[in-house]
Amino acid sequence: MRRGIIVFGHGSSVESANDAVRAVAADAARQGAWERHETAFLDFPPQLGQAVAKLAAEGVDEILVVPYFLTLGIHIQRDLPKLVAELSAAHRVTIRVAPPLDGHPTLSRILAERAREVAG
Description:
This protein is of the alpha/beta class. It has one domain: Rossmann fold, CATH 3.40.50.1400. The protein is built from 4 helices and 4 strands; from the N terminus they run E-H-E-H-E-H-E-H. The chain has a 4-stranded parallel sheet with strand order 2-1-3-4, sandwiched between helices. Helix 3 links the parallel strand 3 and strand 4. The longest helix has 18 residues. It is globular and about 50 Å long. The protein starts with a strand and ends with a helix.
């Protein structure tokens, strides 16, 4: 089975924000030894469908979508499952979705570190 990973964010009209997501995604792919990886956005290109199509064309048959979202909001609860079902059927690939970042134990540590940075 050939697997690929897609880091999926909301996207922004501020391109530097999208670049920041791409940089984190590329670093995560390196750390996870994911040879096939893409970054996709909900509202800005490349969108999830483009990323799935690219990986499927490369022979990937299982795609892991990792949401770059903090919480289980409406996009993750409603929009993403619908997109995943449509794309999975259209490209004949298995797509699994990881939970959002909320609840991960390192998130609170990151917030504490950021507070310490400004506290001095």
